[in-house]
């Protein structure tokens, strides 16, 4: 059997003669076949092993070409000739050069014939000639062939292991070769030589000569850091200023207990030597004040002549309350002139304008704990002072009794507040506007502090309520819903009241809306920088109110100023007064019939701030008081 396998590799001549070379080659083949059989016997004893094909890294095209064309690196002479039907193990086997003689290439010219019925494991594949071209012409194709043959080799564990397979590629050597070639390529470009030549061509600037006069550098004097005189508390003349007063944070207080409060307990200005004696004299003075309302002036021209002579006289400015003024009014009496103001934290100050005593000219009380939103002295009860506040209480200061009586209030936990009030039936009943959108009907004669009736007139906050002066069952409301609504209290229901007319002329929140003293006009101001004047028909039947004048006016007072509220003159028809943001500071008096400014009140010496709230005296047509946001009042009077 061995002899038959060996003879398969020999080529005998037809006549049976054998040359010397062929005998020599046959002996070499015999020795080699024995070595192969011994190695095969040792491999058959071991269990079959599976071989993993390691995919080579990506190789550039130039390297692939050199690998396929160079016979020294690829050993194309030893590459076996694969056939589709053969199953060959893909395990790389190094072939020793000593085993392959030089005569092998000359003797083996043709591949042996293989019988298909024989065991493929016993078939020996002969190598091709050294100069023959390999069927695998690139490493990529070789990898594909090896992968296909590896799949077939896994099914047959006894496949033949050929000793003529090509050598495995040494990737480390290939990488080193690529690095050397890259270095040679960059060296051929001459980059290093150009860099050195450029460095040599650039000459460094020479240092200036040190010969001659030498200048010594003096050390720079470090000046002290500059600080402003304001931080040093020094005035421009160099005098030391006093230390500023410490800022005390204001803590909101709870409102006063329910029921009447004694004026002695509410007295805020206790600067007099004997407060009790001073308060008793003040109460007696206030209770004795009486005044009568004079008739309305029919001619505006007569009022204009006195208006042009109005100015702030000496002593016409005083600080009446500590904080920003939210409400201001006059006492109806002529002598003495008493201006009344309410500030942000519930204090009410009364200023005797004609007094020369600086210590006793102002008397302040604290009947509330939140902003005082409205003040009023009824004409038929001038010894009383009504005040409403954001602490949801309405009190009556009775100077005859010396108490601040609680007239109306809502629970403090309701978080409601009172905006303003207006007498409905002389000094017995009144209407109160709420932050919650309600209007309450109050009877001041009862001891009960609850409302007689409550009407839900708006879903948003109200700002003002105003009663018609002649037909008191009509009243208007205005608020943040940008509407002015006309109501008839005789036809209102508490569950779902319906207005008689809705005036939707403003585009932003309304600050105030009031009937004129005769009831012929309505003036309103809003955050849309307009002042509107509406015409009320006479006789008034509860409808047909029309827009009459539109006046452009800057109403953007900001956060720290009280909103402008145009106020009618109590005795001169069609005249109202309003504050202004213009500089120099001024107070504007308008003629509603013309829709123009009638006169502006200015004073460079005493008027230096914005007077948001302004009121004319009810008995002195040419006397006006203006209040700013620092608690000061400014009084303009006719010089004559």
UniProtKB/TrEMBL annotation:
Superkingdom per UniProt: Eukaryota
Compositional bias annotation for Basic and acidic residues: 21-35, 112-121
Presence of keyword S-adenosyl-L-methionine: no
SUPFAM superfamilies recorded: WD40 repeat-like
WD repeats: from-to residues: 455-497, 503-536
Compositional bias per record (Acidic residues), positions renumbered to this chain: 155-166
GO cellular component, one term: nucleus
Biased amino acid composition, Polar residues: 68-80, 101-110
Region (Disordered): 1-166
SMART domains membership: WD40
One annotated GO biological process: regulation of DNA damage checkpoint
PROSITE patterns in the cross-refs: WD_REPEATS_2 (PS50082)
Alphabetically ordered keywords of this record: Repeat, WD repeat
A Pfam cross-reference name: WD40
InterPro entries: WD40/YVTN_repeat-like_dom_sf, WD40_repeat_dom_sf, WD40_rpt, WD_repeat_DNA-damage-binding
Family to which the UniProt record says this protein belongs: Belongs to the WD repeat DDB2/WDR76 family.
Family matches, as PANTHER family: WD REPEAT-CONTAINING PROTEIN 76
Function: Specifically binds 5-hydroxymethylcytosine (5hmC), suggesting that it acts as a specific reader of 5hmC.
Protein known as: WD repeat-containing protein 76
Species: Plakobranchus ocellatus
């Amino acid at each position: 059997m061995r002899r038959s396998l060996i003879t398969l590799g020999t080529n005998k001549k037809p006549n049976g003669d054998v040359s010397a070379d062929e005998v020599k080659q046959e002996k070499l083949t015999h020795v080699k076949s024995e070595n192969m059989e011994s190695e095969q016997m040792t491999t058959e004893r071991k269990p079959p092993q599976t071989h993993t094909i390691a995919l080579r890294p990506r190789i550039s095209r130039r390297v692939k070409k050199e690998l396929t064309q160079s016979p020294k690196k690829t050993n194309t002479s030893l590459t076996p000739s694969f056939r589709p039907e053969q199953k060959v193990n893909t395990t790389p086997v190094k072939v020793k050069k000593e085993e392959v003689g030089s005569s092998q290439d000359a003797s083996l010219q043709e591949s042996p014939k293989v019988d298909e019925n024989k065991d493929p494991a016993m078939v020996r594949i002969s190598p091709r000639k050294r100069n023959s071209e390999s069927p695998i012409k690139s490493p990529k194709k070789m990898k594909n062939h090896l992968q296909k043959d590896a799949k077939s080799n896994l099914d047959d564990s006894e496949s033949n292991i050929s000793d003529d397979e090509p050598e495995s590629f040494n990737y480390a050597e290939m990488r080193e070769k690529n690095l050397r070639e890259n270095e040679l390529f960059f060296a051929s470009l001459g980059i290093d030589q150009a860099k050195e030549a450029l460095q040599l061509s650039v000459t460094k600037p020479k240092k200036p000569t040190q010969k001659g006069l030498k200048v010594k550098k003096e050390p720079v004097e470090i000046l002290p850091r500059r600080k402003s005189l304001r931080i040093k508390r020094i005035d421009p003349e160099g005098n030391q200023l006093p230390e500023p007063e410490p800022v005390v944070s204001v803590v909101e207080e709870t409102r006063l207990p329910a029921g009447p409060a004694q004026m002695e307990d509410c007295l805020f200005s206790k600067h007099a030597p004997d407060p009790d004696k001073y308060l008793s004299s003040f109460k007696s003075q206030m209770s004795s004040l009486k005044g009568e309302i004079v008739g309305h002036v029919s001619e505006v021209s007569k009022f204009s002549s006195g208006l042009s002579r109005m100015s702030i006289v000496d002593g016409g400015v005083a600080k009446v309350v500590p904080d920003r003024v939210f409400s201001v009014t006059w006492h109806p009496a002529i002598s003495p002139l008493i201006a009344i103001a309410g500030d942000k934290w519930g204090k009410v100050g009364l200023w005797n304008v004609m007094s020369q005593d600086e210590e006793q000219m102002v008397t302040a009380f604290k009947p509330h704990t939140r902003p005082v939103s409205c003040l009023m002295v009824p004409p038929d009860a001038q010894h009383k002072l009504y005040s409403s506040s954001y602490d949801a209480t309405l009190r009556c200061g009775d100077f005859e009794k010396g108490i601040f009586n609680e007239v109306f209030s809502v629970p403090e936990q309701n978080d409601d507040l009172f905006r303003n009030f207006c007498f409905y039936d002389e000094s017995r009943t009144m209407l109160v506007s709420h932050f919650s959108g309600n209007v309450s009907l109050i009877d001041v004669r009862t001891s009960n502090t609850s409302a007689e009736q409550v009407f839900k007139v708006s879903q948003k906050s109200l700002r003002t309520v105003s009663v018609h002066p002649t037909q008191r069952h009509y009243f208007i409301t205005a608020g943040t819903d940008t509407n002015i609504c006309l109501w008839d209290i005789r036809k209102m229901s508490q569950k779902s009241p319906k207005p008689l007319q809705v005036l939707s002329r403003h585009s932003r929140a309304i600050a105030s809306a009031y009937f004129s003293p005769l009831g012929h006009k309505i003036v309103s101001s809003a955050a849309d920088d307009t002042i509107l004047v509406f015409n009320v028909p006479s006789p008034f039947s509860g409808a047909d109110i029309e827009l009459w004048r539109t006046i452009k006016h800057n109403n953007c007072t900001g956060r720290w100023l009280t909103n402008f509220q145009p106020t009618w003159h109590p005795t001169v028809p069609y005249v109202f007064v309003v504050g202004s943001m213009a500089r120099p500071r001024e107070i504007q008096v308008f003629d509603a019939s013309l829709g123009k400014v009638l006169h502006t009140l200015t004073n460079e010496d005493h008027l230096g701030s914005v007077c948001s709230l302004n009121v004319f005296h009810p008995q002195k047509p040419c006397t006006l008081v203006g209040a700013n946001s620092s608690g000061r009042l400014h009084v303009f009077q006719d010089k004559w």
